[in-house]
Amino acid sequence: xxxxxxxxxxxxxxxxxxxxxxxxxxxxxxxxxxxxxxxxxxxxxxxxxxxxxxxxxxxxxxxxxxxxxxxxxxxxxxxxxxxxxxxxxxxxxxxxxxxxxxxxxxxxxxxxxxxxxxxxxxxxxxxxxxxxxxxxxxxxxxxxxxxxxxxxxxxxxxxxxxxxxxxxxxxxxxxxxxxxxxxxxxxxxxxxxxxxxxxxxxxxxxxxxxxxxxxxxxxxxxxxxxxxxxxxxxxxxxxxxxxxxxxxxxxxxxxxxxxxxxxxxxxxxxxxxxxxxxxxxxxxxxxxxxxxxxxxxxxxxxxxxxxxxxxxxxxxxxxxxxxxxxxxxxxxxxxxxxxxxxxxxxxxxxxxxxxxxxxxxxxxxxxxxxxxxxxxxxxxxxxx
Length: 384
Ligand SMILES: *Cc1c(COP(=O)(O)O)cnc(C)c1O
Description:
Its cofactor is pyridoxal 5'-phosphate. The protein is an alpha/beta fold.
């Protein structure tokens, strides 16, 4: 059957009809008072979402552009930075640092394991001359499904005093508690096709007063991604360059939906989706790739044994039109990833798990009792 695609990948995520209808309209002029009013309202809603009083700016980029902007606006050539690398995205931010001539120190952990906060503590306390200018951490490492302990790392960075805490929050914002001001985060970057529930194309960067101080003396080159330009424009409810107006009208709609649901409900829904998915995978006797202590509420990675990951994904797509994500780099064909981020309900997880059971049987996988994954998921949903 056509036209029944179900996205269970960690981005792009499903888009609610309200937002799809907003996207279908004629673009409005971006220098009109109508559009300015929208920007004004969205700016307030974005602050609410980030739990901050600081500036939150919208850029026409994917998530990578937002994180890159969040790094280059506050640093200078040769600055020493620590980058947490326990997956594809952490590695990407280290590469951005390399590309701009920063002195990058990678704090690594095996893919599938969380970053070791003790290693950050050691580097930061040994740095008595305060040469570390920034610490970059990917909160929810999408490539593995690991949630890093950002709260602890940001506390260590606060104690250091000089370094900025720069966060890739692309698959954590709108899924798990991320109180920017309470945790003292300096830069929080995200992208539209994840928790925001709209298609790709917009990036978001929230910037603390401390980071704006660093901006004044930062010397790395910047033009399109110069956040000062966006800040100036945002103060006047406008944008420095032509923004994707349709995407923004759609965003206005989804931010309204998020406000109506409430932050606590959004977080508990993602927690429930994660718990049900993980319980189901355990019920299927399949190893989870991320530990229970550090599991991302946005994405669950599964490392099947005795059966390859990609045939499972391929048949899920062919048989049920459910898109799952694969493994990246050395994890290709070793893991598959179930996204449950954004516009995802309990029903979606039940469908995905039941479909997965059919697929596993069709592939001749005998490591589970049919019905055991669904049963485990229903138990979680019945209790919460
Ligand atoms: C999706 C994602 C990004 C951004 O990727 P783009 O393709 O540039 O939008 C960055 N970090 C994480 C953790 C992500 O999941």
